[in-house]
Amino acid sequence: MKAIIPLAGRGTRLRPHTLTTPKPLVRVAGKPVMSYILDDFPALGIDEVVFIVGYLRDEVERYIAENYPDLTSHFVVQEVQDGTAGAIKLAEPYVTGDLLIVFVDTLFDADLTLPSKLDARWSGVIWAKEVEDYQRFGVIVTDEDGGMTRIVEKPSEPISKLANIGLYYIRDSPLLFEGVNHVLSGDTGPGGEFYLTDAFQYMVDKGARIRTAPVEGWYDCGKVETVLETNGHLLETSRGGIAPDARMEDDAQVSGAVRVESDARVSNSMVGPHVTLERGAVVEDSTLRNCIVGTEAEIRGAHLQDSIVGSRAVVEGVRGRVNVAEYAEIVASEEG
Description:
The chain is an alpha/beta fold. The chain folds into two domains: 2-220, Alpha-Beta Complex (Spore Coat Polysaccharide Biosynthesis Protein SpsA, Chain A); 240-331, UDP N-Acetylglucosamine Acyltransferase, domain 1 (3 Solenoid). The protein has helices at 35-38, 41-44, 57-67, 84-89, 173-184, 196-205, 224-239; strands spanning 2-6, 27-28, 31-32, 48-53, 72-77, 99-102, 106-109, 124-130, 138-142, 148-153, 162-170, 210-214, 217-220, 241-242, 247-249, 253-254, 258-260, 265-267, 270-271, 275-277, 282-284, 287-293, 298-300, 303-309, 314-316, 319-320, 323-324, 329-331. The chain is elongated, with a radius of gyration of 22 Å. The termini are far apart. The relative contact order is 0.12.
């Protein structure tokens, strides 16, 4: 099985961090968002991936080469941002047989071994999560066997609460690309884009059976507020802890789930709950709550909550919420 990962978007809702870092490489709980799925691929037997790149493509390619050298990687540039169907179309020359399609601006708790157990009557799987605010999403309408019958974008009526999360397994890849080509030959959808979900609808209309499968958790990493929420969840469940060589000095205190990485230093400060301090970060005379502090960033005399501070940034004497890009410096005036 091969995988396709579309990465060409600019991540405008995560600025200023995405001005220099591709959205899939934004770190949450000490790890780039994209790595949470890539690290699962060996166990799933996936060793070949088509990355659809665009914005900051060199950063993506460098990261994959350095961190996943055993992965057979293809990088295809999406020159025109014409939607998800256009992105997947670019991978067609590299795909034969089964494939997994993953949009990596969310994290999820899903059974990715399901394809290996799938009955022969199914042509694919769409993972979905039941939500209450269904009007915000594309929702999946199913039959009594859990097979998809329709996908409806942002419905005004409660026809379904099963939200499409952007994770798909396709067994019948020729029919998928037939559907993609059909979509691209027609008119664009809302926003002037071509949607991959319309290709799934084409498959179903041609008689394919696509099963829906539940996910236990679905965590957005598409904007600052949700990155912080996801960081908190991961610290509570799997990514919390203080590295043995982290330095907790001068009455440093911890409250709740935190992650303090190697060579980080906390002095005369309170951190937590839900604070990640990445490698080499320094926190002095401060309190931090619900924050992500990047590699070698420095926080002094500050009282921060709900904040992201980029790598090697400096924040001094600030109270409240900040959203600071890497290498930036924010120092409060003495009067402030």
